[in-house]
Design goal:
This protein is an alpha/beta fold. Helices cover 25% and strands 28% of the residues. A hairpin with a 6-residue loop joins strand 1 and strand 2.
Length: 227
């Protein structure tokens, strides 16, 4: 059995605790953190499906109060250790299903909600990883995309911002869900692994109770990321 290890969180002068038996933090969470726009009035942030907490740690120097929610105990413990070794004091970490966030907060009280969710739909015949931790992280076993968007809506103040990273092939579904729940899309960034590949991921910024007014920002090529 592999042990937890401490790795550098890219060039952020932070350490992150990881374990090869589970998963390592993905570039998706880092891209999402850098996509987030924080205004002076933005004081509170809720990160759903936080994993081992790369996004909250990256943004901890820019937001006064952060709440991060992770369901799986193995991942929660790594996030807890990461926050501790980096001496970060403004992140409140909750071990629970994000469906239960209403038990902790009354709603309508966060300026920003972020999420790097499970990407793949789950059916009884779905091919999933034999390791439960990885299966839950990748497939919508415990929670579906529409539920996440609704939770984000319920926890944002009016005109609050929701940031999501997801697979490009689910873009139309995401737009339909945003329309149904009450989000207006404001910014979209298209992500390519390299210049010869098709678009793989998308980053979205949406605003609660707002009309669509979409800006497509410069595409991101991960082959050049961090250079």
């Amino acid at each position: 059995m592999s042990k937890n290890v401490r790795n550098d969180l890219l060039n952020y002068n932070l350490k992150i605790v990881q374990n090869n038996n589970f998963f390592k933090f993905s570039l998706d969470s880092v891209m999402l953190a850098e996509f987030v726009k924080i205004d002076k009035k933005d004081k509170t942030l809720l990160d759903l499906c936080t994993g081992n907490a790369p996004l909250p740690m990256i943004l901890s120097s820019r937001v006064n109060n952060i709440v991060a929610v992770e369901l799986q105990n193995e991942i929660y413990e790594m996030a807890k250790e990461s926050i501790l070794i980096n001496k970060i004091t403004n992140i409140k970490l909750i071990e629970d299903n994000v469906k239960n966030i209403k038990n902790y907060f009354p709603g309508n009280n966060f300026d920003i909600v972020t999420c790097n969710p499970p990407y793949f739909k789950y059916h009884e015949d779905s091919k999933i990883n034999e390791k439960k931790v990885k299966a839950f992280a990748r497939h919508e076993i415990e929670i579906k995309l529409a539920e996440i968007v609704e939770i984000a809506y319920n926890n944002l103040r009016n005109k609050g911002k929701f940031y999501l990273v997801h697979r490009a092939e689910r873009l139309i579904e995401i737009i339909d869900i945003f329309n149904e729940i009450g989000f207006g899309i404001k910014r979209v960034q298209i992500v390519y692994y390299n210049s010869s590949k098709e678009c793989s991921m998308i980053l979205l910024e949406a605003k609660k109770n707002s009309k669509h007014n979409v800006k497509i920002v410069k595409p991101l090529f991960t082959e050049n990321y961090g250079r």
